[in-house]
């Protein structure tokens, strides 16, 4: 196994100390923010390595030496707080002065304390009567891509890897991002709008945690891929079922419950940090 170390600032002394902890045979530079500790041995020191990296604000990942980007064919990713930096529903709620109430429900759902479908129903109900133009304002004024998003997507496209954006959020945003970023597929929830106003309802069956997992598996089957060819990425409890259906899962700036169950966690660098785990030169 190799140990990939990443951070906004990686100090030489930190690399040497971590290399000592895992008895690496050498240190290789991937780029200015990422390094490969080659042929590690002391994996019984993982807890100590994890603690050291946390204190040094570094991401770490043990990856097989043979890992390569061309082993994968599909990336399935969450939208809110993963591909983009905001929770869209929280920002929509800010337009009608109920952001604190909605954000509180959002956080509880992401921690896994409230069933997602119930939480979405409660949050959307608080938006009743809002003019649909508020959605465009959120997209134009507040929505930002997460750091490294475009670099990551370009590299995946270069390698022929398909992309599915699957979100418990709303089609208004997923479809715009699909077009803007050249994503292959998108699946999400649809807000009911009548006479230019949000009714406070979601149309059809709510796409929840199981819905995300089902969307992944349905597309994977259609594409004729195995589970091992799929990468999934998310940040909240609603992503766990989806992440469990992939060959490798990545927790991006995620809640503790998600980091604990993911194959890898990226908490300090951008989304393009994923490429360094796949040996994507």
Task: Jot down its keywords.
elongated, Alpha-Beta Plaits, 281 residues, magnesium, 12 helices, DUF4072, single chain, alpha/beta, 7-stranded mixed beta sheet
Describe the 3D structure.
The structure is a single chain. The chain is of the alpha/beta class and 281 residues long. It has a domain at 1-66: 2-Layer Sandwich (Alpha-Beta Plaits). The chain contains twelve helices and eleven strands. The protein has helices at 12-21, 46-55, 88-94, 99-110, 116-125, 133-141, 149-158, 171-181, 209-223, 240-244, 256-261, 273-277, and strands spanning 2-6, 26-31, 34-38, 59-63, 74-77, 162-170, 185-194, 197-203, 230-234, 248-252, 264-266. The chain has a seven-stranded mixed β-sheet with strand order 8-7-6-5-9-10-11, sandwiched between helices. Strands 2-3-1-4 form a four-stranded antiparallel β-sheet. Strand 10, helix 11 (256-261) and strand 11 (264-266) form a beta-alpha-beta unit. Helix 3 runs antiparallel to helix 4 (99-110). The longest helix has 15 residues, at 209-223. It is elongated and about 65 Å long. The protein starts with a strand and ends with a helix. GO terms for molecular function: L-phosphoserine phosphatase activity; magnesium ion binding. The active site is at 78 (nucleophile), 80 (proton donor). Its EC number is 3.1.3.3. This is Phosphoserine phosphatase.
């Amino acid at each position: 196994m190799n140990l990939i170390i990443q951070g906004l600032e990686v100090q030489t002394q930190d690399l040497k100390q971590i290399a000592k902890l895992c008895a690496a045979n050498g240190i290789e530079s991937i780029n200015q923010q990422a390094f490969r500790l080659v042929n590690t041995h002391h994996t019984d020191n993982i807890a100590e390595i994890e603690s050291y990296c946390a204190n040094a604000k570094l991401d770490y990942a043990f990856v097989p030496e043979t890992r390569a980007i061309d082993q994968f064919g599909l990336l399935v990713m969450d939208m809110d707080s993963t591909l983009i930096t905001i929770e869209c529903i929280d920002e929509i709620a800010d337009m009608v002065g109920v952001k604190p109430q909605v954000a509180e429900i959002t956080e509880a759902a992401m921690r896994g304390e409230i069933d997602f479908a119930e939480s979405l129903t409660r949050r959307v109900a608080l938006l009743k009567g809002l003019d649909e133009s508020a959605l465009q304002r959120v997209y134009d004024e507040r929505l930002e891509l997460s750091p490294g998003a475009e670099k990551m997507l370009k590299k995946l496209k270069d390698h022929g890897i398909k992309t599915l954006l699957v979100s418990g959020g709303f089609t208004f945003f997923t479809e715009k991002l699909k077009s803007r970023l050249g994503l292959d597929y998108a699946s999400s929830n649809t807000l009911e709008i009548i006479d230019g106003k949000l009714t406070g309802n979601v149309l059809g069956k709510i796409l929840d945690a199981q819905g995300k997992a089902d969307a992944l598996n349905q597309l994977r089957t259609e594409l004729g891929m195995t589970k091992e060819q799929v990468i999934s990425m998310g940040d909240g409890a609603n992503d766990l079922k989806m992440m469990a259906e992939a060959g490798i899962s990545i927790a991006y700036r995620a809640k503790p419950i998600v980091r604990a169950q993911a194959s890898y966690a990226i908490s300090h660098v951008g989304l393009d940090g994923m490429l360094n785990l796949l040996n994507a030169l």
